Amino acid sequence: MNWIRCALAGLFLLLMTVKLPAAHPLAAPGVTSLTNPQVKYRLTDQHAIVLKRGKVTAVIVDNAAVDTKLLPGHRAGYNGLASLKYEGQEENLFVPALAGLNFEHIHDGTTRLPEKFEPRKFPMQIRIISDDTVELYQAPTQNWKLESCGRYQILADGTIEYTFECIPHADLFKNGYIGLFWASYIQAPEDRRIHFYGRRTDRPDQREQFLDARTPSHGVDSTHPPAWARFRPRVAADFPLTLVNHPSAYVYSRPWYYGIRDNYAYTQLFRPRDQIWFAQSPTGGGKQNPAWDFQWFIPDYQPGEAYGFIMRAHYAPWSDRTTLEKQIQTHLSALKQD
């Protein structure tokens, strides 16, 4: 029996010294029904679901066309937040025919783009999780074979928490990374700039400043990486999605930014670990309609593995930056801990 005990002790020591491979830094949090089999949901034949909490009302849509009193003339393809309104507000934050937090592009930085707007083109399924949570599931798409699920949960103060998870089912991304892009098309704000803390890329020793960024035209100075970015995507010189591959002169130093429309602030907040890049266009949603966007890169991906990020969209009346920063502090702390 002694030799058995010795053998077991030796095996235990061996196992203790074996280093398991580290989890991918962008591994899925395991929150949505794509990755968590414990998540229960029901399906619906509706293409738009209302979420209301606190003083905020949001409408979540799949990528089918909707033409109702609630959403007149909403175009096919645009998914996510079709409408966002604060109590007493009649006008939608977003361009009514379009959307916010709209899953827009899948790419690898090469000119191999059989469909520029792949998430728009293939059916999405609405999965109702609860009265305050809805998911948009999309089966593996035809060209990129990317399966995905986006969860929209409205929190107590009306902030939307968005969790995105995806699984690539084929090794098709030629530059070794998956590029994904989300757009929020804002309805004719007086000020089309976005606002964030950052510094110039050519001054790494410069202290952070508060920046008011407006790109001169679509696809020029259009994206702002984090100051702590670990990955820089390789993108073809003639890549057609110009918001992706035209970095500005700035990096951001805090993982959030906001824009103002009609005395309301729309703030997008991110987990530092997810390495999200801000993006913007002064005319992305039409001549007077800017796009306040973001993009995400998954380097060193493996087919069959799940990846994901978590962000929040906060919408509230605007008074000043100090008040806004106090309002969002709880959300920033929660995202930092996730």
Give a description of the structure:
Residues 1-22 form the signal peptide. Keywords: Signal. The longest helix is centred in the C-terminal third of the chain and has 17 residues, at 321-337. The mean pLDDT is 93. With 338 residues, the chain is mostly beta strands. The strands form 4 sheets. The protein has an 8-stranded antiparallel sheet, with helices on one face. Strands 5-10-18-17-13 form a 5-stranded antiparallel sheet. The chain has a 3-stranded antiparallel sheet with strand order 2-3-4, with no helix packed on it. It has helices at residues 2-17, 118-121, 321-337; strands spanning 42-43, 48-53, 56-61, 80-86, 102-107, 125-130, 133-138, 146-154, 160-168, 177-183, 194-200, 209-213, 223-224, 250-252, 256-261, 264-270, 277-281, 291-299, 307-317.
Itemize the secondary structure elements and their pairings.
Elements: H1 2-17, E1 42-43, E2 48-53, E3 56-61, E4 80-86, E5 102-107, H2 118-121, E6 125-130, E7 133-138, E8 146-154, E9 160-168, E10 177-183, E11 194-200, E12 209-213, E13 223-224, E14 250-252, E15 256-261, E16 264-270, E17 277-281, E18 291-299, E19 307-317, H3 321-337
